[in-house]
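Give me the fold.
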Amino acid sequence: MSQKDVGNKVPIYKLKKTEEVMKYYDEWGIENKYDKDMLDWNYTGPKETSEVFNRYAKDKEIKIYDAGCGTGLVGVELKKYGFKNFFGADLSQKLLDLVPKNLYQKLEKVDLNKQIEHLDNKFDAVMCVGTFTFGHVKPPALDEFIRITKNKGLICFTINEGIHEEYGFDKKLVELTEKKQWKKIEFFKSDYIASKDVNAWLGLYEVTK
């Protein structure tokens, strides 16, 4: 599916620059239109990734870094399974302001295309849902996710099918596996935004550094 085709279904996919994306999200957050659209579109990313993550993460006390947390949709889903130790990061302060109170331990305004200001091996897991998509976060972020995740920790993410090869995520996943930075546990095509016929690859990897 070309970027033009997807962009007609989800306008933000037409944007190229970080500044354009941030402005769009800030406006999308007004009167909580973002969450309303996600509901209307049947956006299943947070629910699907949380289900997969819960199958393998048995300790409910683990420290989870939610990269590109938006309004906290992943945190809401993970909480249903008993997880509670979330740390959220997003580029849009407007969306962070819409995160339910007391859901996350801490929220940070962060550009995930840059170095993450956390120590090595700080987190037990990283969730990144809906963030690897057109005009958003690029493959090098996976190196940072591995860096801040403890050995044997989990990294769970979605990659929009339209950028998987175009942005080089396919090569990055292989590179990290060959370098024994992580090993694949699950990787499959998910529904993602079913109503828009937009799919994503859903991956769960275990850090093996």
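The two ends are 35 Å apart (CA to CA).
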